[in-house]
Design brief:
Layout (H helix, E strand, L loop, with lengths): L1 H12 L5 H18 L3 H5 L9 H6 L10 H17 L5 H11 L3
Helix pairs in contact: 1-2, 2-5, 2-6, 5-6
Length: 105
């Protein structure tokens, strides 16, 4: 499932030349896809096999000037948004709005 989400994120990011827009779009498309596929639990948890973090690995390929470390911080926010929806702390719309807000800074 994670591979399918990353594939969608890669496709969305490829549309833009601007790395900031690429990351923003990738995170939001990945969030929307995880919701659509009902994969919040699976994707909000750490990989029990201790395998590579495919989301972080993909995001690390997009270089944003002056923002080193985004590839490690954004996946945590993305997973927290999914978990918040799963646990009904936030609605899908509220969680997405928080991600949008984070990605405009």
């Amino acid at each position: 499932m994670e591979r399918r989400i990353v594939d969608r994120m890669e496709g969305a990011a490829a549309v833009f030349d601007d790395p900031t827009k690429s990351i923003r779009t990738a995170i939001l498309v990945g969030f929307d896809s995880a919701i659509k596929f009902g994969a919040c639990r699976l994707l909000s948890e750490n990989d029990p096999s201790q395998g590579p973090d495919r989301i972080a690995d993909f995001l690390s390929t997009i270089q944003v000037d002056g923002a080193q470390g985004l590839a490690y911080i954004l996946p945590a926010a993305w997973r927290s948004a999914l978990l918040s929806v799963l646990e009904e702390r936030l609605s899908v719309e509220e969680a997405r709005s928080v991600l949008e807000w984070l990605l405009t800074k």
